[in-house]
Each structure stands twice: as C-alpha cells, then as structure tokens.
Amino acid sequence: PRLDRWAGRGMAVVVGRIRRLGPRKLAFVVLGHNTVRGAAGNSVLTAELMAKTQT
Known about the structure:
The protein has a domain at 1-35. A two-stranded antiparallel sheet has the order 1-2. The protein is globular, with a radius of gyration of 12 Å. The protein is an alpha+beta fold. The chain is 35% helix and 33% strand.
C-alpha cells in the first residue's frame, strides 16, 4: 500500500493479491487513496471498473 497510495497522484485504484478460489471465483484486494478522490468517488470508480470487466 505505501508504494501504491500515490498511484495516479491519488486518482487511481490499485488491485492486488489476486487469487483464484474456484473455477468461477476470485479474491482480491483493492486500494484507493481517498485523500484526493474521496470515499464516494472511489466507490463509484471501483463499481464502474467492475461493471466494465464483467463478462
């Protein structure tokens, strides 16, 4: 988290520790540094990313 918190100058979401739990299940950690974006804006960005990557 320390290395990634200023990714995109605080305007990015970083995904890590991705692992497969089963044939159709994943687990991962999402880091958003809320100093610039704010908690609500970060949640919207995460939801948009998840919706875009759904197949």
